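Researcher: Structure prediction, please.
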Amino acid sequence: MAGRELHVVSTGRQPLDELARIAGLIHPYVDAIHLREHAKTARELLNGIGMLLAAGVPADRIVVNDRADVAAAAGVQGVQLAYHSLDVTDVKEWFPQLRIGRSVHSLKEAVEAEKKGADYVFFGHVYPTASKPDSPARGLRELKLLASRTRIPVIAIGGVKPANVAETLKAGASGVAVMSGILEAADPIREAAAYHQCLHRGRENNHGPSS
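Model: Predicted structure follows.
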């Protein structure tokens, strides 16, 4: 996968059937839909993937948070690893077919993830966000530094809105990740389309979203 990416990350607050319904509507505008469901068992995650597939979401656009085993068993795009997850090196060895993302919060963590073989990193939170009111945003300067020191794509997460996508890309991000801004919006399709348009403005001429 190349180019400017839009990742949509589940909030853990929606029933999986509702998430699947929305994902089935927005996936033409999205490069990856992440199942970030910490409270779900492996079996529940696998059932959730089945719901996404039944809703028309392509397997190559589904990412599972933390559970590389579930992602590999389901044959989906990849896994998003956190600080508590398996090491990138181990996942690369055991599940070489997966695209591996690593969530990072500093340049040091990003450089380490790249050295170990991560295909991309999530970096955030870039902007102030209601989900982390007591944690200061890392800001565009840190995003720019991190993007300039790594060769793998950097996906910005945290408080990213259509209005600030352009400056996020200018700072070096290869894409953005969104949670409630799309999945809990009154019109998720409209919001997904707005992010997609902002990401690809000037790069599309009479071309629709991905298919």
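Model: The chain has a mean pLDDT of 94.
Researcher: Thanks, that helps.
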